[in-house]
Amino acid sequence: MRFLFILFLEMFFVTLLAKNSCTADTDCSSFEVCENLSCEHKKLFPNLLLMEIGGFIVFFIFSIVTTIAGNGGGTVFLPILMLMYNFST
Hints:
mainly alpha, 9% strand
């Protein structure tokens, strides 16, 4: 039990300290901007990228397909958000 607690604390601090530090927007990926010396996910508007428009279309089509199929779309939507919008887990 003590081992699991120490492992949890270690994982917590690693994720806490693993934030990307930056000095300019070029230090971050295309979906991130530099705010307060760390890379944060960019706002959707007014800087809409072509990849995001494609993601809207794919997201809409897959939401129709999962609704017709009768299952929840979580197993489909999460990979779309991770691949097309660069969201992390």
